[in-house]
Every structure is written in C-alpha cells, then in structure tokens.
Amino acid sequence: MPYPLDAAAVRAWCGLALEALGRERERIDAINVYPVADGDTGTNLYLTLESATRAVEAAFDGHASTGTTPRLADAIGAMAHGALIGARGNSGTILAQLLRGMTEVLAAEEDPDGGPHGPADALRRALRRAAASTYEAVAHPVEGTVLTVATAAADAAERATGDAAHIARAAHDGARSALKATPGQLAVLGRAGVVDAGGCGLVALLGALADALSGESTAAPVTVRADAPLPEAGGRAATGADGCIDSDGDGPAFEVIYLLEADDAAVARLRTRLDGLGDSLVVVGGDGLWNVHVHVDDAGAAVEAGIEAGRPYRIRITHFGGATRIKEPEMAARAVVAVVPGAGLAGLCTEAGATTVSVRPGEPPASGELVQAIRQAHAREVMLLPNDPELRHTAAAAAEQARTEGVRVALIPTRSAVQGIAALAVHEPGRSFDEDVVAMTSAAGATRYAELAVAERQSWTMAGVCQAGDVLGLIDGDVAVIGSDLTATAMTVLDRMLSAGGEMVTLVLGTDIPDTLADRLEAHVRERHLAVDTVVYEGGQYAAPLLIGVE
Question: What are the residues whose beta carbons fall under 8 Å from the beta carbon of 43, sequence distance 6 or more?
Fold first, then answer.
C-alpha cells in the first residue's frame, strides 16, 4: 500500500537508505576509482546519511516531547541539515547538496496531498531541483558521474505518471539505467571496468525512497561492474566533475573539508580562490552555513582561505600520501591520526605527517569520524592521539572498530594538544611499532599541560570562587589559578609548572591573542628559568586562548 509523502515517509526513507548503504558500502568502496582512488566512497556516503538520520530522529524526539508530529518541512529540512554538517568526502558533500535541493521544493509544500499540484508533482520538481543544485555546487561538472545519474533520475520522474510512489520508482529505474552507462562516458571508469561509485550510492538512496513510499521491499544489489562498451584503450579521462584529472595522473596531496559560517558574497570569493589552489572543489549549503571540500597541495592555504571568508570549523585534513592515484591505494606502514582544536594546530600536525580531525569546542567527534580518519590514513599501523580526556572512550571505540578491519591501532593517552605535539615530535616510523608507541606515550606523559580560559559565569573551583570574566589557569585539567589579566595569569601558571623542573615550554596561541603575549612570556621564562627553551605556535580559531606545555 502506498504511503503519503510526509514526515513519516522521510523517517522511513532514512532508515531504509541507511540499511541499503550499509549493505552496499564495501562494494561501493571497492569500485571507487574516481575522482580519487581512495576506496572510501561507500563509507563516506554511509557516514553522511548516518548524520542525516540522527538529525531526523532528533526532530521527531523534539516534537514527541511536546506531543506534536513533525511536518514534512521539518523532517526533510532536518535530513538535509544533518547531511550538510556530517558530509564526508566528495561523495558525501554532493549527497548533502542533493538533499538540500529536494528540501528547497518539499519544504515549501505545507501539505503536498492537499496542494495545487499534489505530492507526485512535488516529488518530480524536488528531484529536478536536486539534480540542478549539484551542478551549481561542483566547480567543473562532467558527465559519467553521480551528476549524470541524478539528472537521469529527474528525467525519468518527469516522464512518469501516477502517485509519488510511482514517481520514486521511475526515478530509481532511470538512475539504474544511467549508472550502467557511466563507464562509456568517463574513460577512467571504462578502463577499470566499473560504474561510478557515487552513482551507485544514489541508486541505493533512490531505491530506498521508492520502498518507503510504496511499502514494498525491493532491495537488490546495485550493479557495480560495467556492461557498456568501454572506451578505446589509451583514451584519456575528461577533467572531472570536481576538476580532478583521471586516476592515472598525479594529484594534490591533501583533502581539506570544513564547515563554514559565511555570507553568499564571501563564499563566491572563496570558490574562486580554492579553484585556483586545487581540484575536486565542491561547496554546498546556504543560508549562512556551508560545507567546503577541496583537494590541494597546500592545506594551510585552503584553511586560511576559509578563515578569510568566515568561520571555518570541524576542519578535517587528510594526507593522500603524495603518491600517484591508483585503483588500490598502497598501504603505508604506519600513520598518526590526531584530534585537534583549531586550524593552526591542524596545519601543524598535518605538516608533521598526521591525518587530522579538527573539532570545535562543545562538538566532539563521533567514533565513526575517528574510524573514517583511520581508514583514510591508509596504513597498516596507526597511532591515535585523542588529545582530550573526554574523548578517551570515543577513541577507544574507534580503535576497536578499526582493529576489526585489520588495522593495528595504538591509542596514545594524550590529554591535551600540547601532549599530542610532544608525541608527534618523537614519532619515528623507522623503528618498530611497539618502540614507537612507547616513545610517543612517554613523551606525552612527560609533558605537563595547562590551558587559559575565561570564566563564563560565577562558579566554585579548586582554586576558589571565580566570577564571570575571570581568567582561569587550568593545570593538568584542574583550575589552579584565578586572575584578572591574561598575561599575569599565564606567568603564574608557567612559574608553578616550571617549579618542578622542565626543559622546554610550548605555547599555542588562540585567535585574537596578540603576538606581544608570546614575547612577554618568552622573556619571562628566560629571566626566571635558566636553560629552558620556548617554542610558539599559532592555534587559530577554536583553540583555547592559550595552551601551555612543559616537558
């Protein structure tokens, strides 16, 4: 029996789509040769939809507390927003834009069943807007990708008659047919003998939508091998849907992804700048919140461009290893994955060879994000640096999951970013895994850490009562100093930490902290503590005002 196109249908669609992508994830990962052969398209789509599903469930929970039911606009809007903030990789970013395009139409339908055009027409227009919006988001569209599959689905929906369930089924069938033709449109797919991985994910998504609206279960494996005529041997792949050359060429070393709060004009300038820095550029979103994805050689420049445009956060920088893109990525012997606050620290750790997961205060990463970062490191052995005591259990769960996938993971118990910096400084891939773990753990453990923060309200602390606006000096996680001046409080914290000895002081400055602070603290250390060196780093946005490490 067909079901109405309403909030309940969106909820059912999320559940069925998540199940479908869960079944297809490994198969889609295995055929991921474009735009980068990094074997993660299925995983990225799954994680993106998982975020969308959580958002929809949260919308239903919120309405349940008031005894109401979400409207279609509430549910589809939550799904699109969840995908936007949780988008992973190139494929997940495009999926987020597809859902946003559908939302632009369906959210305007207060009551599709009673509207002037009906739910079937609303779904037709939603699918057309979804396809068109992806072309707007991708810097250099080309056919033979998920964009082609989305357009074919919209074309089939417009030709179909019947209720919304029939329209969804027609879109699914049109997408399946278009998917089979992708190897003949993109040479890199033809040479590999596979269809487009992102298109596979979209077919699974549309199949779930048709099942949710029809009440039927037609789950069937998506075709992943080519049955279309292959391009002539030696043919070159066209410049990609994201500006990327085919997988036989060398490409940028880093994937950079971040959420960005910025206005439309700033984002337009950002697109132009990032397009000149690299390829695989996809910028999705709107209404002040965007998800930015690009492949570049200079990860720092890509992040700096975001800072100039607005407020970037949840910054993720993945190192491709600097190797030629090939169908099966070569596994590195060993890698480091680090969770860091602030763009500056993310760039610092990336330069040291780590895969980073950048976080915003109050928004810790889920274990799935850490697992994905471990996968993207493409290494047989991984050191995981949580750099936060609150992430201990999350990191442990991620490590356990990665171990089931055959990766040897060591959880280095870093409780602060400065402990992570100390551990990275002694990381040596040339020695045995166990020796490296011991050295990194020892370096982290030998580093006392402190943080300066500003009290938001009156509160009791280990050092007494603080008032809103007071400067708090936390040593090893506990408030040890309460002051009114940042510099004076920092000096007191340094003196207390160095009273037990130390050879090296690390200072990490947050945004809006003047360089003169570092100069004054360096001078203070020189004058009061002989034979102690000081190094200074820029933490960037979302780092604490000041982080201190003493080794």
Answer: 25, 29, 88, 372, 375
> Which are the contacts of 84, defined by CB distance < 8 A and separation ≥ 6?
96, 100, 259, 284, 285, 289, 291
Cα–Cα distance, 284 to 261 (Å, whole number):
12
User: What count of Cα atoms within 13 Å lies in the side-chain half-sphere of residue 289?
Assistant: 13
Return the pLDDT at 10.
95
pLDDT at 220: 63
pLDDT at residue number 239:
31
CA 473 to the chain's CA centroid = 32
Q: Among candidates 517, 518, 513, 520, which has minimal Cα distance to 535?
A: 518
Name the 3-class secondary structure at 377. Answer: coil
CA distance 483 to 380: 48
Instruction: Please state whether beta strands 448-454 and 504-510 pair in parallel, antiparallel, or not at all (unpaired).
Output: unpaired
Residue type at position 225: R
- Please give the span between the terminal C-alpha atoms of the chain, in angstroms, as a whole number: 68
Of 35-39, 96-100, 191-195, where does mean pLDDT reach its minimum?
35-39
User: How far apart are alpha carbons 402 and 417 in whole angstroms?
Assistant: 23
Label residue 363 exposed, middle or buried (CB < 10 Å: 0-12, 13-18, 19+). exposed
Q: Rounded to an integer, what distance in angstroms lies between the CA atom of residue 112 and that of residue 12?
A: 18
Alpha carbon distance 508, 346 (integer Å)? 12
User: Which pair of tokens denotes residue 400?
Assistant: 């356990």
Residue 36's pLDDT band, with cuts at 50, 70 and 90, is: low
pLDDT in tens, 72-85: 999 999 999 999 98
Digit-coded pLDDT (tens) for 112-140: 444 446 889 999 999 999 999 999 988 88
Count CB atoms within 10 A of the CB of residue 207.
25
The token pair at 47 is 């994680």
Average pLDDT, rounded, for the chain: 84
* 182, 196 contact by CB (below 8 A): yes
Which tokens sit at 413?
A: 């118990």
Residue type, 486: L
Q: What is the dihedral of CA 347, 348, 353, 356, to 10 degrees?
A: -50
Q: Find the mean pLDDT for residues 160-178.
A: 94
Higher model confidence: residue 285 or residue 37?
A: 285
Average pLDDT over residues 139-167: 92
**Which backbone phi and psi does 492 adopt, to 5 degrees?**
-65, -40
Q: Please give the Cα distance from 99 to 146 (Å, whole number).
A: 13
- Answer yes or no: are the C-beta atoms of 131 and 150 closer than 8 Å: yes
- Res 495: pLDDT: 92
- Is 138 exposed, middle or buried, given 0-12, 13-18 or 19+ CB atoms closer than 10 A? buried
CB neighbours of residue 457 within 10 Å: 8
Beta-strand ranges (E) seen in 140-201 are none
